[in-house]
Amino acid sequence: MFLKLASQRIRGIILNPKQEWEIILHERKENFIATFCIYYLGAYLIAGLFGKILFTTDLPIDIKRISLQLVSNLVILLCMLFFSKILVINTLKHKEIAISNYIINKLIFYSMMPYTMALLITTLLSNYKALSKFILFLGCYGIILFYLGIGKHIKMDQKDKQRLVLMVSLFVIIFVVICNYVIKAFIL
Predict the structure, then answer these.
(1) Which of 7, 46, 73, 163 has its CA 20 to 30 Å from the CA of residue 186?
(2) What is the pTM (predicted TM-score) of this model?
(3) What is the full per-residue pLDDT of the chain (188 aa) written as tens digits?
(4) What are the Cα distances from residue 35, in Å, to 1, 29, 38, 110, 160?
């Protein structure tokens, strides 16, 4: 059931974001992030294994390395969600705009779906570096989704929306670059 709902939401948010934001923000799913993380862990592990089996000659498969990549990517995603939420809450509080944490969670979470899906695809195609970088770049579509979601559900003027989107986007990009550097330098 969750997989069907998740695939509908992901497809909808990517292909028809304006209409899908209305559906997403009016449904009540309390544990959607925790449930998604569990399925994401499984999908990421499967993508890593299939990627190593199908698209590489590196045998034997290094389960320890795949597991480290899995955990590090999940930690990065959860930290991005948490710190982006703090950034949005503080910005809205500064502008004296009240909005529920639940809606902020959904705005940030579903805006990161293109990047999350790009991570899964690049895990599968890990030996194709140029293609992987291009796919990760396509994950930046989440910036547009975030802007559209804010436009639908947060009442603030256009310049403030643009500043908020720019601030959160720069934070996420810088955070991901730094985390990837640290992971490659010290962990993997």
Answers:
(1) 46
(2) 0.79
(3) 566 777 787 788 888 888 888 887 777 766 667 777 677 767 777 777 777 777 766 666 667 777 777 777 778 878 888 888 888 888 888 878 888 787 888 888 888 888 888 877 887 777 777 887 888 888 888 888 888 888 877 888 888 888 888 988 888 888 888 887 887 777 65
(4) 11, 10, 5, 14, 33
